[in-house]
Specification:
Low-confidence stretches: none
Distance between the termini: 49 Å
Number of strands: 6
Order of helices and strands: HEEEEHHEEH
Number of helices: 4
Length: 127
């Protein structure tokens, strides 16, 4: 019995898989750590941090990506390129903490989290 693959069923199955394979842990009163389904160039899980800020949410890498790529900050060009890519993709970049982030409302929180995870994967290939 050969069933035709249905687009809506496939879409639902993908959503279910992502949901089942995404970890969310409350790490502070107003902050969650999200272990996404994305894998970086080192083969590691990509994490995002979501913090409630007033009526909005800040989704960030907590400065961990660029630190991971160059913990001694010996390659300023890597940091500059990472910043340019983040800003070009519509994210904010904190020069002091090297954190990549975006502020969003609750309605767009999931999308912002996935977009940041994808951006981290892309930037991880610079290292």
């Amino acid at each position: 019995m050969n069933k035709e693959l249905k687009a809506e069923k496939l879409k639902e199955d993908i959503g279910n898989w992502v949901s089942q394979n995404t970890g969310v842990i409350k790490v502070a009163e107003d902050t969650y750590e999200v272990a996404t389904t994305q894998i970086d160039s080192y083969g590691d899980t990509v994490y995002c941090f979501i913090t409630k800020v007033g009526d909005y949410y800040e989704v960030s890498d907590d400065g961990r990506l660029l630190f991971k790529l160059d913990p001694g900050e010996t390659n300023p060009e890597l940091y500059e390129t990472g910043e340019e890519i983040a800003l070009g993709a519509g994210f904010d970049f904190d020069d002091e903490t090297c954190s990549i982030s975006v502020t969003t409302d609750e309605e767009n929180l999931a999308q912002a989290t996935i977009r940041l995870a994808q951006l981290q994967v892309a930037i991880s290939y610079l290292g």
